[in-house]
């Protein structure tokens, strides 16, 4: 028994001593790991130019601009985080809830939230139906091929705005906006109306199935709209969902944030919105992302003034 125990202990010590540092990983103690993530580029007809400069990307020979970079997109995570940049308005769309998505798509549903990073004057988002809009009116408008945007609430946006977009909320991100989005790890989107653009499939019947027409679920309070997120130093909770718990951390140069993460039920991630930081000793520049997997402790040291999204 002693021999077996000694062998096991020696093996554990050897793992801690000789396990190599891999590209994108840093071993801090034993087999604990921090993983710097590589974004997945998604090109869209409505994409803009800012993600190229933000991320140092190139589009030589590409026919469509970059609309999204999937920054935290791991199969085993229940959440996903991305940057979005627009030069044109997105389709008016809706995402199903978990129950509908599981039955019809064999997927989980999709609730998402937005943190606006940049927006040109006059830009905004379409979110929720106006108070007089019923399912019958929306169906009639679609059937007559009339513009649908007039039936939705329009909210002008500025840097530092926050929106919570629950599954079932009809919405569209407008043009000339750059934002960070955190969502359930699902790609299920039903296009309701696409501004009469040609060639992209619509999903009218499924959309009508899942759009929430309840008046309270289409009002400003339901979307948890907040402003001036970047004005106040420190940690603030943005939203809690069964699949992700989201915080914003605004830091001044030299600030240190620490948290024990042993009680967190899933791996946590950090999406850096601005400024360089050290995360458990690893330098992460603006717009970078890391996954904190099997770590007991999270330590963030600000090398510049900046802001980060923490996802637990």
Descriptive notes:
Helix content is 15%, strand content 39%. It starts with a helix and ends with a strand. The N terminus is likely disordered. The chain is built from 5 helices and 22 strands. A hairpin with a 2-residue loop joins strand 18 and strand 19. The longest helix has 17 residues. By secondary structure, it is an alpha+beta fold.
Q: Provide the low-confidence segments as ranges.
A: 1-31
Largest sheet: 7 strands, antiparallel
Number of beta-strand segments: 22
Distance between the termini: 41 Å
- Approximate strand percentage: 35-45%
Overall pLDDT level: 89
Strand order of the largest sheet: 1-2-20-17-22-15-14
Protein structure class: alpha+beta
SSE arrangement, N to C: HEEEHEEEHEEHEEEEEHEEEEEEEEE
Provide keyphrases for this structure:
312 residues, alpha+beta, 7-stranded antiparallel beta sheet, 6-stranded antiparallel beta sheet, 15% helix
Summarize the structure.
The chain is α+β, with helices and mostly antiparallel strands and 312 residues long. The protein has helices at residues 2-18, 50-55, 98-105, 135-143, 204-210, and strands at residues 25-27, 33-36, 40-48, 66-72, 79-85, 92-94, 112-119, 124-129, 152-156, 162-165, 171-173, 177-184, 190-193, 234-241, 244-251, 256-260, 268-274, 277-279, 282-284, 289-293, 297-302, 306-311.
